[in-house]
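Reviewer 2 asked us to include a model.

Predict the structure of this chain.
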Amino acid sequence: MARTPSNMIPLGTKAPNFNLMDSVTNKILSLKGLKGDKGTVIFFICNHCPFVIHVNEELVNVANYYMDKGISFVAISSNDVEDYPQDSPELMKKVAGDMNYPFPYLYDETQEVAKAYDAACTPDIYVFDEVLKLVYRGQLDDSRPGNGVEVTGKDLRHALDCLLQDKENNALQKPSIGCNIKWKR
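Predicted model (structure tokens):
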């Protein structure tokens, strides 16, 4: 299992806009239409990555807890579906339904959005404030498949609590670790 870290782009970076197809509704959705009043969480995930499968339930728990507090959540899959057909939009829709995703699960067919965000792995997590400036990037928590650490979402939850309380997040922001994004050849 490859272990690719996230790129940790500079805090303060403005979220690149996008228009992507939602695998569940087949509608084109934009960042502008999805952004939350208090903040926006964007995570790059996919169906087959063991790191994502390991944290999927907690991603749903975090979203369900914070969505009514003005935070929106958006999942994006950018993997090459020719070489990784298990990440196709049809199967994305199935995973979204099976996991009860409370957020859209967008398909980045051209991979331009992943490149714009400098996404490197799945899961790769970004938190933007109300004006779409980056305030957190990195891991959900210290849990990884097989390391015996409980999945709690503590790092992401701390970042969101700081954002909602208008406090600076002074905690160390650790890179996420996961499977590399499957780039087209």
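The longest strand covers residues 71-77. The chain has a mean pLDDT of 97. We have added this to the supplementary material.
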